[in-house]
Design brief:
Layout: E1 11-15, H1 18-30, E2 38-42, H2 53-58, E3 66-67, H3 75-93, E4 97-101, H4 105-117, E5 121-126, H5 136-147, E6 150-153, H6 156-164, E7 172-174, H7 178-186, E8 205-209, H8 213-216, H9 219-236, E9 239-241, H10 246-254, E10 263-264, H11 271-280, E11 283-286, H12 289-297, E12 302-304, H13 312-317, E13 320-322, H14 331-342, H15 361-371
Parallel strand pairs: 1-2, 1-4, 2-3, 4-5, 5-6, 6-7, 8-9, 8-11, 9-10, 11-12, 12-13
Length: 373
């Protein structure tokens, strides 16, 4: 591997979970316009290739230069292995900056390794806060922001959050959302694309994703969610499109749960197929942070099965609404969620909203780095 400054990459980009593959594609596709070179490191946080590598190939992004194989026995051991692997790569290639995305354990591992090596750390999606300290993602994003030298925010709210926390203004760059860059680039092909196993026939289609431990690891809450899907299908004569996350499927199998007949599970699907589902669907139920944004990017509203969200802008414009998953323990709570899903609200257009950079986030990130060389 290169040892001198001439061959050292401008960026060591650290990725390891599904959303980060998508985010990295926006930066990777824009590198040539800025004459910058990148090394892509896959931490192995999501070891299943169907949960990650497919995104890179279908978005035209080269495979990672480095792929780690961390322990999967516990979160602590995995984090330690990922941090060590990133640190060893930094020592080998001497990057000018370490770039991390979002709020996963890979994000924190990359930030810690870069900080310890004295390499500037760039955090994409800085300043987001859900206010829920029970979530590991909240810990990761707060710690990463503290360690980072350049904090790239998605909009004014995240910028204000960092300012309130005392972050120096010269460390903050408001760029927008790289997820919107990719979503807009994909939009022109979606009308002609249907995802695998898409329901046929009449009736609306509800698109569903559930994966957060706080929901799916609790069998009562997960069964409540499944009951809601069945009731929604009966009420609307529609179908549910539910790519079941491996974590969710494991819990379902362990507790003997099964999906109703009108629920279609294609298994893990790629990024473009997920965008097509959001584009063609008639409503969205999710506990994901990123998918609630993507739903709006493709013209759909989302009911978010959480009691808080880091994407408060979406709540303020009516693009998404929250529903506390704890309510699924009671019949009246399940009924209330069905009512909410039966009548999805109209959402405003992305274009002209002024939110999330309107497709120029990657260029702004690279421009900021170029100006600080």
């Amino acid at each position: 591997m290169p040892k001198d400054a001439k061959t050292s990459p401008d960026l060591l980009a650290v990725i390891g979970a599904r959303p980060q593959f998508i985010k990295s594609a926006a930066i990777t596709r824009a590198l040539g316009d800025f004459g910058m070179a990148q090394m892509l490191l896959h931490t192995g946080q999501h070891a299943d290739p169907e949960m990650g590598m497919d995104f890179l190939s279908e978005l035209g992004v080269p495979p990672p230069d480095v792929i780690l194989k961390p322990s999967q026995r516990s979160r602590t051991l995995r984090l330690a292995d990922m941090m060590r692997g990133v640190a060893e790569t930094i020592e080998d290639v001497k990057p000018k900056s370490v770039l991390v995305y979002g709020d996963t354990d890979s994000t924190l591992a990359g930030a810690l390794a870069g900080h310890h090596a004295g390499i500037p750390v760039v955090h994409v999606e800085a300043g987001l806060r859900s206010g829920d300290r029970r979530m590991p993602e909240e810990h990761n994003r707060i710690l990463t922001d503290q360690l980072s030298d350049i904090l790239c925010t998605t909009g004014p709210e995240a910028t204000r959050q960092l300012q309130q926390e005392g972050v120096d203004a010269d460390r903050i760059v408001e760029v927008g959302d790289v997820m919107l860059d990719i979503a807009l680039a994909a939009r022109n092909i979606l009308p002609r694309r249907l995802p695998p196993s898409w329901p046929t026939g009449k009736g609306p289609v509800l698109v569903v994703t559930l994966h957060r431990p706080g929901t799916v690891d609790d069998p009562a809450l997960l069964q409540g969610a499944v009951d809601v899907l069945e009731a929604w299908c009966r009420r609307t004569s529609g179908h549910v499109y539910f790519p079941v996350h491996p974590r969710t499927l494991k819990v379902m199998h362990h507790h003997g749960m099964s999906l109703p007949q009108a629920v279609f599970n294609p298994g893990p699907i790629g990024y473009l197929d997920m965008q097509a589902a959001l584009f063609h669907g008639d409503g969205v139920l999710t506990d994901s942070g990123g998918l609630q944004k993507e739903a709006w990017f493709q013209g759909n509203g989302a009911v978010v099965l959480r009691d808080t969200t880091e994407w408060r802008e979406l709540l303020s414009i009516g693009a998404s609404t929250l529903f506390d998953p704890a309510l699924l323990r009671a019949p009246q709570g399940r009924s209330a969620l069905v009512d909410r899903l039966v009548s999805p609200s109209e959402v405003p257009e992305v274009e002209g909203s002024g939110l999330f950079g309107e497709g120029k986030a990657a260029a702004r990130i690279l421009g900021a780095l170029q100006s600080r060389r």
